[in-house]
Design goal:
elongated; about 325 residues; homodimer; about 45% helix; alpha/beta; DNA-binding; 12 strands; four-stranded parallel sheet; six-stranded parallel sheet
DNA sequence: AAAGCGGATGTTATCGATAACATTTCTGGA
DNA sequence: TCCAGAAATGTTATCGATAACATCCGCTTT
C-alpha cells in the first residue's frame, strides 16, 4: 500500500480520519475516553493507509521500547539455545521484540558490555540466562528500575527467577538407579560454578545420603561429549561402578562410548542416566534414560514474570520453579 | 556515575565541553571538520558523564536503527542455532544489535508477520535464514531499499546470499566412500524442500554418475535421529548396502543405532558419513566421519555483505560460498 | 436557566538525536 | 593588507510519537 515516498505517520491517519493525531494515539493505546464511532473511523483509516506506529518515536518520548533484551552465553548448548528460541516465540506473541546479546564468557566485564548495549537500546526489560555465579555479579550493572528476570540463576539471590528444579531432577535420577538395585550411584557433574551443576550435585548427594548409600567421589567435567568420554574411560575400568548419573546427555554419550569400547555393556553391567533429553537421546546406543527439562515452560514463565514487573511497579520478587520429568529408556531400566 | 535522575543527553555533554550539541554529534559520528583539541575536550566530557547516545532518538531522525533483524525458523537444530549465535557476535563487534524473529514454519504468512515486526523496529538490514523455497517467496514482503542477505537460500535467486557449498560437501563425502572401495553409496537426505538437502542430493548423485556407479533410490527423511533410526532399520536388512551418506549427523546417529541393533558392524560391514560435525559427533559409536560446515565464516560473510549493502546504495548482488571440510573418523575410514 | 461536571477532543511542549543552513574563524595567495 | 575560500562551529528545523494541559460539548442538578 505504501506506494508513496515514506510510510504514513500518525498525522496522516489523523487527517484521513478527520481527527487530531492525539486521538489516533488514544485509539492506539486503548484509552477509555474515545467515542466508539471515532474509534472505528480511526481504525479504518489505519487499515486503509497500512499505518504502523514508529517505535523509535514512541521509545524516544516514553524512554522505553517494546524490546526485551536477552543476555546469554554464546552457546550452542541445547539448553540455552532452546530457551532463547522458546522465549522469542512467547515474547512475539505478547508484542515484544527480542534483542539477543550473547557473550563468550559470563565474566563481569563481558556481561557489563552486553548489558550496556541493551541499555543503549532502552530495552523495556532484561532476561539474563545466568548459569554461573559470575553472571549474578553483573547485577550491579543493571539499573534498579529496569525489570529483570533471571533464568537458571542463583536461587538465593531473592531476585525474580525462573528455573528448573535441578535438585528434584537429580533426586529422581538417583532414586531411579537406587530403586533398580544399585548399591550406589556415581555422578559426573558439569562445571561446578554452574548453578545447574550445583543443584544436580546436591540432589544426587542428598538422595544417596538419605538412602544410606556410600557417596562416591564427585567427578566434574565440562558439558562436552569429549570430557564424558575421558571420564568414562576411567569409570569403565572400575568394576564397582554399576550406575552413573551424568549432568547432561552429551556427557552421557561420551561415557556410553567409553563403556562400549571397554566391553562394558549398558545397562547389563552399567546403567547410565543423563539430563536434558535432547531430541536424539532416544537414539543413543542404547537409548538414554534422562531427565527432561521443560524449557518452553521456563521461557513462558520468565516472560510472564517480566511482564508482571513491567506492569506493577511493586515488583514482589517472585520465583518460579518448573518441575523436570524422568524419561525412562533402556540405558537405565526399572529393573536390571 | 549517573546519580542524577536521568541519563545525560547530548546537550549535557555540550555544556560541559563548552561547545554546541551539534559539535558533540560531529565528534560522535567522526565528521572530519572538528579541531583535534575540541574533539579531545568533547571525548573527555563524554567519558566524565558516562554519556551514551540515545539510539531511539537517532533512529527517529535518521529513519534507521543500529539494529539488524534476523529471520529464522524456530529451531534448535545445530546449524541454525550456531549460525544465530555466531552472527550476533559478529554484529556486536560491528556495533549492531540483533533482533531475532523466529517462526514456527517458513510459510509465507509467518514470515510476513516476522518481517513486519522487524520493519516496525526500523531495522537497518535483514538476514534471512531461508532453508526452504517457501521462505524465498517472502521476498515480496521486503521493501526493495532495505539491505537483505540470505543464508542458505536459493542460489539462483540472484540475491545476496551466503551459503556453504553443499554440493562440494556431498561430493567429498561420496567420493570418500567410493575411494574406500564401496561399489555405490546410499543417501538418506533431509526434507527435499530444503536447499541444503537439494545440494547434498545433487552432489551425491553427480559423484556416483561420474564414477559410473549405480545410483540407489533416494531415501528422504526429516532431520531427526528418529527418522534416521527408522530408515536405518530398513537399510540394515539389506546386505548390499555397505556405504551410507546421511544429510546430517543426527540422522547418522539413528542409523548407527539401527545398524548396531541388527548386528551390522560399522565400519566393517557398513560405512557411514554424516554432515554438520556437531560437537559430539566424535563420540558416537563409532566416531562419525562427517562434513564440517564453517558456520562462523558464513555468519561473518553474511554480515560483511550486509554492511556492504548498507554503505553503497548500488548493492551488486553478491554471493559468497563457503567451502566445507571432510572430517574422517572411524565410521568411514579411508580403507575398510 | 445557570452552574457544574465529566467525557471527548484538540493544542502545544517534549523526548534526543541528525540535517540543513548560517555564521565565525582560520588560512594562503594576490 | 586584504580577501576568497575552506575549515570549524553554532542555530534552527525536524523526525513521530506521548504527556500535559486546554477546550468544547452535552447532561444533570438545583
Amino acid at each position: 500500500m505504501d506506494k508513496g515516498s515514506r510510510s504514513p505517520a500518525m498525522t496522516d491517519v489523523a487527517r484521513l480520519a478527520g481527527v487530531s493525531h492525539q486521538t489516533v494515539s488514544r485509539v492506539l493505546n486503548d484509552h477509555p475516553n474515545v467515542k466508539e464511532q471515532t474509534r472505528i473511523r480511526v481504525r479504518a483509516a489505519i487499515a486503509e493507509l497500512g499505518y504502523r506506529p514508529n517505535r523509535a518515536a514512541r521509545a524516544l518520548v516514553t524512554g522505553r521500547s517494546q524490546l526485551i533484551g536477552v543476555v546469554a552465553r554464546n552457546s550452542t548448548l541445547f539448553g540455552p539455545a532452546t530457551m532463547l528460541s522458546e522465549f522469542e516465540q512467547a515474547a512475539a506473541d505478547a508484542g515484544f521484540a527480542v534483542s539477543v546479546g550473547s557473550v563468550r564468557e559470563l565474566d563481569r566485564s563481558s556481561i557489563s558490555a552486553v548489558v550496556d548495549r541493551h541499555l543503549d537500546q532502552r530495552v523495556a526489560g532484561l532476561v539474563v540466562i545466568a548459569n554461573t555465579a559470575s553472571a549474578t555479579e553483573a547485577l550491579a550493572e543493571i539499573p534498579g528500575d529496569l525489570p529483570v528476570v533471571f533464568i537458571d540463576g542463583d536461587p538465593d539471590s531473592g531476585r525474580p527467577l525462573v528455573t528448573v528444579d535441578q535438585v528434584a531432577g537429580a533426586r529422581a535420577a538417583t532414586r531411579h538407579l537406587l530403586d533398580a538395585g544399585h548399591e550406589t550411584v556415581w555422578h559426573v557433574s558439569g562445571p561446578t560454578d554452574w548453578f545447574d551443576s550445583a543443584g544436580r550435585i546436591q540432589g544426587w548427594r542428598q538422595t544417596l545420603e538419605e538412602a544410606g548409600a556410600e557417596v562416591p567421589p564427585l567427578l566434574s567435567a565440562d558439558w562436552s561429549a569429549a570430557e564424558g568420554y575421558r571420564t568414562g574411560q576411567m569409570l569403565a575400568r572400575m568394576p564397582e561402578v554399576t550406575a552413573i548419573f551424568t549432568a547432561n546427555d552429551h556427557l552421557a554419550l561420551g561415557i556410553l562410548r567409553a563403556l562400549h569400547e571397554r566391553g562394558r555393556r549398558v545397562p547389563h553391567d552399567v546403567s547410565v542416566v543423563g539430563f536434558d533429553d535432547v531430541p536424539e537421546a532416544a537414539y543413543f546406543i542404547p537409548p538414554l534414560t534422562t531427565v527432561r527439562q521443560a524449557f518452553g515452560d521456563v521461557a513462558r514463565a520468565a516472560l510472564s514474570l517480566l511482564l508482571g514487573q513491567m506492569r506493577d511497579e511493586n515488583g514482589t520478587a517472585n520465583q518460579i520453579v518448573v518441575p523436570p520429568q524422568l524419561i525412562v529408556r533402556e540405558s537405565a531400566p526399572r529393573r536390571v
